[in-house]
């Protein structure tokens, strides 16, 4: 299926290649470079590129292109999903997935790629299994290995491979047994000029960090499972049980994993946690424009809106902006016309605002494009959909684990026409 | 050529490899792997590296493997040195070592070792470790690509591995099947049900491959579930004229889905919840190609969910949705807002979303869509704005109600400051006007006014073409435009020049008085143009329109040639013909057939033999007295865990009697009856399989008949799928499974219709909680010897004379209990054996005749069941009658 893999950095250098079948010359990447040149933005490179003898399927993550070479028919999503899984694995192993990290750990990378694919077909992609085959590099282990001559490579077939719970390794031992669950929700919304919602939806995930000894069998139940409209599970979740009782029952993998992602049904009204008041105007015939923006909290259930970051793409005609923030700092890049304002926390008593004037290119006509404004924010301890975990129980093991559940709401894709205002996803 | 620096560095690596220290060797190998990763050539180190293939250090060994696989092809002779090491490793007790030896051996692309590989694969295919067998499945493809002549032998191995029951092997062997012999559908028959049942537990990558293969399989084996729709759509008129007879045949055969077809759909459905986007897409395409149309809607939500994933995933999913949305708007219309474009989307994502929104547009939602489009037109991404204008044009032609609105909107855009927007609008307006030119002369006039400010050649050419084509509608303006053009002719682009010549010719024909001189002037300019196309065109036009003695008959027809009515261009989706490819495939994405693409066949008109998928149960009992051997399907009984070394067998006798579950009086017209099928249950190993017949005796249709989710007692019940509609006087038979837990306690549950709920209960007879097994007489006595004391219960009865014959004893016992008959060597001893459904405990029954008495002995761990069974057998044997 997957013939070869090339890793290409932002400046267009191939810095790693791996072949699973016979060697494909790296000149095949020339077709990719052609496409890269044609694309205006790095994201605009088409994911599937046909060449006379091969097909190139690429994904872009962390400013590295992962280009897979395919020779015959294969579901493209199969390859794309696998490439993303490779990136996730690298991130899991090295903490970050950068060119430097990959180059530093090139031997581990090679060993990993060797285990993940056999003859181009995925062999072991489950992180728990891989970690038994190839131990992640740590400073301590490197030192120990140089002294004792032991290796990072496991000698036994990982137990998970053959068991009915392939995602969990056996013989897990912890002195502190803990299970943490993060319920993270993102709101996507489009809001029009007048402030009314065009679309709003909530997407959520439950990320888990489980460090429990032995073979624990967990069940997690919700106060209001009906909220969850469309769900996708980690393979460990017993689907039948969910269908019948709306309870998540599972033997968890060891470590970090995404238990569940869900969509909150659109029938439920989505509470919009912030509002934006804006006034962006240009006078005809004048080279000055006014800019006014005020943010305020709305339906936050008393929780503080934090890490607010506003950014906006101003029209091309704008030369400079002279603004005055009531709090935080702002920057304006005259080249890309990107305005960004780091607001911080919203104080409901004293609403943050950004006011001032913009200067236009002399002689240029009044811009008619819609400036887009992106806002990012976080609300701790709140799942905006109202989803609540009822209880978490453990069976199968005798000890008493420490359990913790954390809620958080973030802005997803959130668009507000002011002319047009866009509120955007938060990193982290 | 290698640089001296490189050479010397390799020298030093060679020294390290030849040293005695493991750590130095390892360090050297790590650096070599670094070289390979960078794409540098390290092939001349081959002799030094290959020596370490038998190293004890496992990391060193693995790195040597990496090196070997990379360079063996180039250094075939040297590579042969390593083969014996692998052959030895293939016999290693550690399964990981066996597997990796096979992996490397099969990855070395050296034709000379083909026989060795073949042997190794055959051996590994029967290995005890499923992991090694999985590796063997992968090796099949490698060997096949190295030497296609081995195909026949490899197919044998594939056939063997397809029978494997390990979930680990299933995905890999199907992959090998797809690569080596995708046309050998016959190999799948016997494994079809097993693959369907294993699917949920197979690893995710295997699931994708299996689902794609099963999609192809199903299209060759089952009849189309869409037939009904087709009949309504096309043939309603035709059927009227068809012979009566044919029609009757058609009607008398309502579509019934093959249970195997249903099995596939049912078992793939949960996978829509997978976290793996490829699996979700695979299931979606399976439903698209196989499911009845009304069941299709369940995939919508999952596909829309995938749009939250990475950019590349979105791209593929949107493409597939675009194809689907052409045929079935309704599927995605409720989710229209999910396709609204966001300013951060990549351009190709934006274009696809536009495509989908255009496909979804209908009379009801067009105003919402157009409003959304208006914001897009103002986007800073000009290429996208241009695509939006195209989309507006598409909507305008598809939905006649909004044509005028769209046209007016586009005309407004003509005064936009951005050139690309204006140009695109002109082009789209041109296309729209062609459909109804007469009503829009003012738009043409408006465009003529704007002409001076438009610089994009394509747009200028389009306006000129419009002027010429509809010059009769704008008799005053067209000549004036031509006059202006005559002035700027030399500065125009080629495409504009061609249209100027066209315009001149058309005006000459319609309005020669005003334009004769202008035309001649332009034709003269064109005659000396640098571009030969323009010179050719000019010469042609001159001959055509200006009559002279040399021009033949053609010029008479000049007007008819130039002013012929031209069909309006059809604006249609680029995804119109994509459905010729299976969804979710690379070929679909590229819209051209990729190498190795396997065509999805059309549904067969008549379903091929269904029985090919039946898995024969080993050694069916030879029984003389069994009146009705069940002829229903045998599911893969072999895969169930059976206690001791016994084989499950098919039931000797299946009673036809059904029991009442719900009387039609209590059920307000809904009546239900159940019977025990005595088959292993397909829903679970510990379940008793039941057949439920539901009938509607009212004069109204009953809707949504199902079993309520809350079960009052502890039994685990597998519900039948809700019956959406039961017509008056109709009845339907469904199957369900109940885990009675080896107790005769009744299972209580709620049978619901749309309006009502009825509490019902099923009380099983103890004999129904058993499954028959076969064993030899010797085994029977051995097992019986183990189950004595508390586990034995017996009774002596007096037999009625007509019951004494062997036939009648057998019949009586098997009708009471689902037991297997053991061929007996002695005249007067009858033996029966079975196991309980839930726990699989043995139940042994023997009847010894001692004229006129008979001793019945029952041996089982389940003493309660034993005594109940004893009572029933007793009654059965003492009663006379059949």
From TrEMBL, chain A:
Q: According to its UniProt record, where is this protein mainly located?
A: membrane
This protein's UniProt keywords:
Cytoplasmic vesicle, Golgi apparatus, Membrane, Protein transport, Transport
What name goes with this protein?
AP-3 complex subunit mu-2
The subcellular localization recorded is: Cytoplasmic vesicle membrane; Golgi apparatus
The answer to whether the entry has keyword Signal is: no
Give the record's GO biological process terms. intracellular protein transport; vesicle-mediated transport
* Organism, scientific name: Sinocyclocheilus rhinocerous
The UniProt record lists the MHD domain at 176-417
Pfam families from the UniProt entry: Adap_comp_sub, Clat_adaptor_s
Q: Which GO terms describe its cellular component?
A: clathrin adaptor complex; cytoplasmic vesicle membrane; Golgi apparatus
Note the superkingdom of the native organism: Eukaryota
The cross-references to SUPFAM superfamilies, in alphabetical order and at most eight, read:
Second domain of Mu2 adaptin subunit (ap50) of ap2 adaptor, SNARE-like
Q: How does it sit in the membrane?
A: Peripheral membrane protein
What PROSITE patterns does the entry give?
CLAT_ADAPTOR_M_1, CLAT_ADAPTOR_M_2, MHD
In the record, the note on similarity to other proteins reads:
Belongs to the adaptor complexes medium subunit family.
UniProtKB/TrEMBL annotation, chain B:
Q: Where is the AP-3 complex subunit beta C-terminal domain?
A: 590-745
Q: Name one GO cellular component term.
A: clathrin adaptor complex
Q: Does this entry carry the keyword Membrane?
A: yes
- Alphabetic keyword roster: Cytoplasmic vesicle, Golgi apparatus, Membrane, Phosphoprotein, Protein transport, Transport
Residue span, Beta-adaptin appendage C-terminal subdomain domain: 769-878
Q: Which GO terms describe its biological process?
A: intracellular protein transport; vesicle-mediated transport
Q: Which Gene3D superfamilies match?
A: Leucine-rich Repeat Variant
Predominant place of localization = membrane
Q: Where in the cell is it found?
A: Cytoplasmic vesicle, Clathrin-coated vesicle membrane; Golgi apparatus
Q: Indicate how the chain sits in the lipid bilayer.
A: Peripheral membrane protein
* Family stated for the protein in its record: Belongs to the adaptor complexes large subunit family.
Chain's role: Subunit of non-clathrin- and clathrin-associated adaptor protein complex 3 (AP-3) that plays a role in protein sorting in the late-Golgi/trans-Golgi network (TGN) and/or endosomes. The AP complexes mediate both the recruitment of clathrin to membranes and the recognition of sorting signals within the cytosolic tails of transmembrane cargo molecules. AP-3 appears to be involved in the sorting of a subset of transmembrane proteins targeted to lysosomes and lysosome-related organelles.
Q: What is this protein called?
A: AP-3 complex subunit beta-1-like
In which organism is this protein found?
A: Sinocyclocheilus rhinocerous
The gene it comes from is ap3b1a
């Amino acid at each position: 299926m997957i013939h070869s893999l090339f890793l290409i950095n932002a400046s267009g250098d191939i810095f790693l290649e791996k072949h699973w079948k016979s060697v494909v010359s790296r000149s095949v990447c020339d077709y990719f470079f052609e496409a890269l040149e044609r694309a205006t933005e790095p994201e605009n490179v088409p994911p599937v590129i046909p060449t006379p003898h091969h097909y190139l399927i690429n994904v872009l993550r962390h400013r590295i292109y992962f280009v897979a070479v395919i020779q015959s028919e294969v579901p493209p999503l199969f390859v794309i999903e696998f490439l993303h899984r490779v990136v996730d694995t690298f991130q899991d192993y090295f903490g970050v997935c950068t060119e430097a990290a990959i180059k530093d750990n090139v031997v581990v990378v090679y060993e990993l790629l060797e285990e993940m694919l056999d003859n181009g077909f995925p062999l072991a992609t489950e992180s728990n299994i891989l970690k038994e085959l190839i131990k992640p590099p740590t400073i301590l282990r490197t030192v120990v290995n140089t002294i004792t001559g032991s290796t990072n490579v496991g000698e036994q077939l990982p137990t998970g491979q053959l068991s009915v719970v392939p995602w969990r390794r056996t013989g897990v031992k912890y002195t502190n047994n803990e299970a943490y669950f993060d319920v993270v929700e993102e709101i996507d919304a489009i809001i029009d000029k007048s402030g009314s919602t065009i679309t709003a939806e909530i997407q959520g995930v439950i990320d888990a960090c489980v460090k429990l000894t032995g073979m624990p069998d967990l069940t997690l139940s919700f106060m209001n499972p009906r909220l969850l409209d469309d769900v996708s599970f980690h393979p460990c979740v017993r689907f039948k049980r969910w269908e019948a009782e709306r309870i998540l029952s599972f033997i968890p993998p060891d470590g970090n994993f995404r238990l569940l992602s869900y969509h909150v049904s659109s029938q439920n009204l989505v509470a919009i946690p912030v509002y934006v008041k804006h006034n962006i105007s240009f006078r005809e015939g004048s080279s000055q424009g006014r800019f006014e923006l005020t943010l305020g909290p709305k339906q936050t259930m008393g929780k503080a809106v934090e890490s607010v970051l506003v950014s906006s793409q101003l029209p091309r005609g704008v030369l400079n902006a002279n603004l005055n923030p009531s709090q935080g700092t702002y920057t304006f890049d005259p080249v890309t016309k990107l305005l960004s304002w780091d607001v911080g926390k919203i104080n409901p008593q004293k609403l943050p605002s950004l006011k001032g004037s913009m200067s236009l290119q002399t002689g240029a006509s009044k811009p008619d494009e819609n400036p887009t404004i992106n806002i990012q924010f976080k609300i701790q301890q709140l799942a905006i959909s109202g989803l609540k975990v009822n209880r978490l129980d453990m069976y199968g093991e005798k000890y008493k684990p420490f359990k913790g559940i954390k809620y958080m709401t973030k802005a997803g894709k959130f668009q507000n026409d002011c002319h047009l205002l866009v509120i955007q996803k938060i990193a982290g | 050529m290698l640089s001296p620096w490189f050479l010397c560095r390799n020298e030093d690596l060679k020294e390290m490899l030849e040293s005695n220290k493991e750590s130095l060797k390892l360090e050297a190998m790590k650096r070599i792997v670094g070289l390979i990763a960078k794409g540098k050539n390290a092939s001349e180190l081959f002799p030094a590296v290959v020596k370490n293939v038998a190293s004890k250090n496992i990391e060193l060994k693995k790195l040597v493997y990496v090196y070997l696989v990379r360079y063996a092809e180039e250094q075939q002779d040297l590579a042969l040195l390593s083969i014996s090491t692998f052959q030895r490793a293939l016999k290693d007790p550690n399964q990981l070592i066996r597997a990796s030896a096979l992996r490397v051996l099969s990855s070395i692309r050296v034709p000379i070792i083909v026989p060795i590989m073949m042997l190794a694969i055959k051996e590994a295919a029967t290995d005890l470790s499923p992991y090694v067998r999985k590796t063997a499945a992968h090796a099949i493809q490698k060997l096949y690509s190295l030497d296609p002549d081995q195909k026949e032998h490899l197919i044998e191995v594939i056939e063997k591995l397809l029978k494997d029951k390990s979930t680990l092997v299933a995905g890999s062997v199907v992959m090998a099947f797809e690569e080596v012999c995708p046309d050998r559908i016959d190999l799948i028959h016997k494994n079809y049900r097993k693959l369907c049942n294993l699917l949920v537990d197979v690893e995710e990558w295997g699931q994708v491959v299996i689902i794609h293969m099963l999609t192809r399989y199903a299209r060759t084996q089952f009849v189309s579930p869409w037939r009904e729709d087709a009949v309504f759509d096309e043939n309603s008129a035709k059927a009227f004229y068809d012979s009566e007879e044919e029609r009757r045949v058609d009607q008398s055969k309502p579509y019934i889905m093959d249970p195997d077809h249903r099995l596939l759909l049912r078992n793939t459905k949960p996978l829509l919840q997978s976290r793996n986007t490829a699996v979700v897409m695979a299931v979606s395409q399976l439903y698209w190609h196989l499911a009845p149309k009304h069941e299709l809607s369940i995939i919508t939500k999952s596909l829309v969910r995938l749009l939250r994933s990475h950019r590349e995933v979105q791209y593929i999913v949107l493409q597939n949705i675009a194809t689907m949305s052409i045929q079935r708007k309704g599927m995605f219309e409720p989710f229209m807002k999910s396709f609204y474009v966001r300013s951060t989307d990549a351009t190709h994502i934006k274009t696809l979303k536009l495509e989908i929104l255009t496909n979804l547009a209908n009379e009801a939602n067009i105003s919402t869509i157009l409003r959304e489009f208006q914001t897009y037109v103002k986007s800073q991404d000009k290429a996208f704005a241009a695509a939006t204008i195209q989309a507006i044009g598409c909507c305008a032609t598809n939905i006649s109600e909004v044509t005028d609105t769209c046209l007016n909107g586009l005309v407004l855009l003509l005064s936009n400051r951005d050139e690309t927007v204006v140009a695109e609008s002109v082009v789209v307006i041109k296309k729209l006007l062609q459909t109804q030119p007469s009503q829009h002369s003012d738009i043409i006039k408006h465009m003529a006014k704007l002409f001076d400010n438009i610089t994009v050649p394509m747009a200028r050419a389009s306006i000129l073409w419009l002027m010429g084509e509809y010059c009769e509608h704008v008799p005053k303006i067209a000549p004036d435009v031509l006059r202006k053009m005559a002035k700027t002719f030399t500065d125009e682009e080629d495409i504009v020049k061609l249209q100027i010549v066209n315009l001149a010719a058309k005006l000459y024909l319609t309005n020669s008085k005003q334009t004769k001189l202008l035309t001649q002037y332009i034709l003269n300019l064109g005659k000396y143009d640098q571009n030969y196309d323009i010179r050719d065109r000019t010469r042609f036009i001159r001959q055509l329109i200006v009559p002279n003695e040399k021009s033949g008959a053609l010029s008479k027809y000049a007007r008819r040639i130039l002013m012929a009515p031209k069909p309006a261009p059809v604006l249609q989706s680029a995804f119109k013909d994509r459905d010729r490819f299976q969804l979710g495939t690379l070929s679909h994405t590229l819209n051209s057939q990729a190498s190795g693409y396997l065509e999805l066949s059309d549904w067969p008109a008549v379903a091929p033999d269904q029985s090919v998928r039946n898995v024969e149960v080993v050694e069916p009992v030879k029984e003389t007295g069994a009146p009705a051997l069940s002829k229903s399907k045998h599911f893969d009984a072999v895969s169930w865990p059976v206690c001791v070394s016994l084989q499950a067998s098919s039931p000797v006798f299946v009673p036809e009697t059904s029991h009442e579950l719900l009387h039609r009086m209590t059920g307000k017209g809904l009546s239900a009856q159940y019977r025990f099928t005595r088959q292993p249950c397909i829903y679970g190993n510990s379940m008793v399989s039941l057949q439920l017949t539901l009938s509607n005796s009212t004069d109204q249709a009953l809707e949504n008949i199902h079993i309520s989710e809350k079960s009052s007692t502890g039994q685990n019940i597998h519900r039948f799928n809700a019956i959406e509609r039961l017509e008056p006087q109709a009845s339907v038979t469904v199957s369900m499974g109940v885990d009675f837990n080896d107790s005769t306690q009744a299972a209580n549950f709620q049978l619901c219709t749309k309006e009502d709920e009825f509490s019902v209960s099923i009380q099983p007879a103890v004999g129904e909680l058993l499954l028959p097994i076969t064993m030899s007489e010797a085994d029977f006595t051995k097992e019986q010897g183990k189950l004595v004391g508390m586990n034995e219960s017996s009774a002596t009865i007096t037999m009625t004379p007509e019951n004494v014959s062997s036939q009648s004893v057998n019949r009586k016992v098997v009708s009471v209990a689902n037991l297997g008959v053991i061929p007996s060597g002695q005249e007067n001893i009858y033996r029966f054996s079975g196991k309980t459904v839930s726990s699989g405990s043995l139940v042994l029954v023997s009847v010894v005749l001692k004229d006129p008495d008979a001793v019945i002995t029952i041996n089982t761990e389940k003493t309660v069941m034993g005594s109940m069974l004893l009572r029933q057998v007793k009654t059965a044997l003492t009663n006379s009658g059949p």
